[in-house]
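FAQ

Q: What does a record look like?
A: Structure on top, sequence underneath. For example:
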């Protein structure tokens, strides 16, 4: 499901707040007789926020999630009217799912680390021990003009190559404005809207063809057109950042999350080990062998 963080959809909830002030619980969306009211919607969002506090959805994503939930409820209503939930095989699946929810919820609670974990000292120690994993690799800030190859036809590809060559020559003319050329001719909408600026990019994650060109360019230099799988690229190097060590403040949140996850896994295994030690498992190997043979 796509129900996300409340902060990212405050505009939607703000439009409903006046209703709440009047004690109303208006319908947010409906599909036939199936309705989702404001209170239900807020509850869904709160649960989603707890499950994924870092998500930042668009209004469109939230709207789609609402539609998905309406369809799910409508299907459920139809299934119940058909007494689908009374079928023996469905009843077995329901019971199995119910038991799994109970088991998962129980073991998650037993394994959950204490709120105080990890301590500041433990965080510092983990950071020092794993410093090599907290490196910011070399980055480069690029501008580009992108020309896609419309088809696999040779004449089409050649035409785009010629256009790329012409733009490269114009970009290198005295007084030329790369930003203007990118804004006018680049077909990469996102960067073209920013005058061709691609922002900071990690060098080792660049498309290989572009990385090869960019690594050879000086600051302010424009590389010759290079063809990648998606089309032709003309890139200009604006700035570079050498590899650097990330500070504890930069990685603290992700480090704490990783440490708590690892601790939960350790706690779960310890709990299971104690359970088995307290109540040993015995297996009737003869019966097991007979059963296994019957499935061959």
């Amino acid at each position: 499901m796509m129900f996300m963080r409340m902060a990212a959809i405050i505009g939607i909830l703000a439009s409903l707040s006046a209703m709440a002030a009047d004690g109303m619980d208006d319908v947010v969306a409906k599909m036939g007789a199936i309705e989702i009211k404001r209170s239900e919607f807020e509850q869904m969002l709160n649960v989603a926020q707890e499950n994924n506090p870092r998500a930042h959805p668009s209004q469109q994503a939230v709207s789609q999630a609402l539609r998905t939930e309406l369809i799910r409820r409508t299907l459920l209503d139809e299934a119940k009217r058909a007494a689908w939930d009374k079928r023996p095989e469905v009843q077995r699946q329901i019971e199995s799912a119910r038991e799994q929810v109970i088991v998962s919820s129980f073991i998650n609670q037993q394994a959950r680390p204490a709120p105080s974990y990890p301590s500041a000292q433990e965080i510092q120690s983990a950071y020092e021990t794993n410093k090599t994993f907290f490196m910011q690799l070399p980055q480069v800030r690029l501008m580009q003009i992108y020309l896609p190859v419309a088809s696999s036809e040779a004449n089409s590809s050649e035409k785009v190559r010629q256009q790329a060559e012409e733009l490269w020559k114009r970009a290198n003319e005295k007084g030329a404005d790369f930003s203007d050329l990118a804004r006018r001719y680049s077909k990469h909408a996102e960067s073209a809207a920013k005058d061709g600026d691609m922002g900071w990019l990690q060098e080792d994650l660049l498309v290989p063809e572009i990385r090869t060109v960019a690594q050879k360019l000086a600051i302010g230099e424009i590389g010759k057109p290079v063809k990648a799988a998606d089309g032709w690229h003309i890139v200009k190097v604006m700035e570079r950042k050498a590899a650097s060590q990330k500070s504890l403040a930069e990685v603290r949140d992700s480090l704490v999350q990783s440490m708590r996850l690892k601790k939960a896994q350790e706690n779960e295994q310890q709990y299971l080990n104690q359970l088995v030690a307290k109540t040993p498992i015995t297996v009737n190997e003869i019966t097991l062998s007979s059963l296994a043979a019957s499935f061959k």
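Q: Is there anything notable about this one?
A: The two ends are 40 Å apart (CA to CA).
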